[in-house]
Design goal:
mainly alpha; single chain; 245 residues; elongated; two-stranded antiparallel ribbon
Length: 245
Amino acid sequence: MADRAVEALLRAGNGTALSLARSGDEPPVTIPRDPAREAARRELSKDLYHQNDPGLFQRALDTLWDWIGDLFGTASTATPGGTLGLLVVILAVVAVVTALWWRLGTPRRGPSSTAALFDDRPRSAAEHRAAAEAHAAQGHWNQAVQERMRAIVRSLEERALLDARPGRTADEAAAEAGRTLPAHTDRLSAAARDFDDVTYGGRRATEQSYGRIAELDLDLERTKPQLTASNTHTAAHTARQGAAE
């Protein structure tokens, strides 16, 4: 059977026709090229010749590796230093991506928070600070950052630098406080981002991030506000509310 396939292939590969010698005095048989090619195709399509062929998955995998090999070969010829130079470039890219991922962490899910900063249980700034310190002592940095940010905002409300407005977000509180305390605008915004990152963005706080927000809290306690007309109105309104109570 294999001999017939080889014979058919030989017929298909020689010129426009092939003359086969026959035994005795019989004249040779001349087979045109196209019928010879068709005979070879029919012969080689039989299952006998495909019993050991690789499966569909193996063929796809072989094609993929061939493509990767061709791509790697093309890239190595275009890279200074050949294959070694390409490996150095790949390792450098991997190192940069790893460093950025370690430094920046998981990307934030949203640009800012939309939920309220406080829950339904009103607590004083001192209570929020005590909760933050308790979480920090146990290494629960996410909760410590959250409670310290709440302590900052509650403290500003208690000092009448912010009006006590339910439903305020951390970003809104930072923006409003920055108008009264312009020297701390950037740090207030950074504290709000840290709060959003750990509360809504899926990131993990660190001891350093808690240290920054705790230091901001202490600095704000020692800072005198720059009152504007709107701030004076807010402070007067809060004072009248306190007197009425």
